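Q: I'm building a small set of examples for a reading group on sequence design. Run inverse folding on the following structure and report the sequence directly after it, with nothing in between.
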């Protein structure tokens, strides 16, 4: 079987004829993980809602494996697993009942649902909580519940909106590993503000701004664009305010009695002692999205 392909062509979404949430967005996704990055209002949620058929585009089209998704009908929805940012769970339901309920909504047959409910609960470290009510779950546990329900029915396209929000570092690593594992034969799109979650595992990073696709490249290629523009300044505390005023500051730490300030700048700072640093995806995010 060939690779899955989700092709988006000139997608636009306008509200009230004046507000443009998505502007001529075109891109082709194949099997693998894609990180969707951008500030609030960049169009990430609108894009995900159109792909999952929660809202209708104003113009443009989406094709899945060469066929417009509108022509797939109900079959298309079976191919998509969606984890929204909002934790829409039923507090009186047990985890087991909730997963069976979501399986029924997705049209998963009873035999497959029986196998997957147990399998996915174990995958997200909630097997011991199958018979507990969701109202007793912590925020982090609810995040894992939402990931499990997104994977019911073995969808070919998985859309994850802030999948690690509320998770501790150990859980975040576990969820990242799950995402990497499922992406071998699926298209996985991850929208997040936690840059580290997509920096290493993504096939490509999509940078969105004001409803448009700004850049779409592998992390290494994006970081390469900032070679020579990331510096670490060593300074006294009374110099910090001036540095923050003049440069994009990515990080501040203390080392050997002095401050170490990581900045993004077109040229090395002449006034301060500094060294060049290897760019990271956080530097890229700051460079393209923060006010200067």
């Amino acid at each position: 079987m060939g690779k899955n392909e989700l092709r988006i062509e000139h997608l636009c979404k306008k509200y009230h004829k004046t507000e443009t949430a998505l502007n001529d967005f075109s891109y082709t996704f194949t099997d693998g993980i894609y990180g969707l990055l951008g500030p609030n209002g960049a169009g990430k949620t609108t894009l995900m809602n159109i792909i999952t058929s929660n809202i209708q585009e104003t113009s443009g089209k989406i094709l899945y494996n060469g066929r417009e998704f509108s022509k797939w009908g109900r079959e298309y929805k079976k191919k998509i697993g969606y984890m929204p940012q909002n934790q829409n769970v039923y507090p009186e339901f047990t985890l087991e009942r909730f997963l069976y309920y979501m399986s029924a909504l997705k049209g998963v047959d009873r035999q497959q649902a029986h196998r997957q409910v147990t399998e996915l609960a174990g995958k997200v470290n909630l097997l011991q909580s199958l018979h507990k009510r969701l109202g007793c779950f912590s925020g982090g546990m609810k995040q894992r519940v939402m990931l499990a329900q997104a994977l019911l029915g073995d969808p070919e396209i998985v859309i994850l909106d802030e999948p690690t929000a509320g998770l501790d570092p150990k859980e975040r690593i576990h969820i990242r590993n799950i995402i990497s594992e499922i992406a071998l034969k699926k298209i996985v799109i991850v929208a997040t503000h936690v840059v580290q979650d997509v920096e290493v595992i993504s096939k490509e990073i999509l940078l969105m701004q004001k409803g448009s696709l700004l850049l779409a490249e592998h992390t290494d290629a994006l970081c390469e664009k900032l070679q020579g523009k990331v510096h670490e300044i060593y300074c006294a505390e009374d110099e910090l305010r001036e540095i923050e005023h003049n440069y994009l500051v990515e990080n501040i730490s203390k080392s050997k009695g002095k401050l170490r300030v990581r900045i993004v700048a077109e040229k090395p700072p002449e006034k301060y002692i500094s060294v060049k640093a290897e760019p990271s995806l956080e530097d890229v995010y700051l460079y393209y999205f923060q006010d200067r």
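The CA atoms of residues 246 and 292 lie 9 Å apart.
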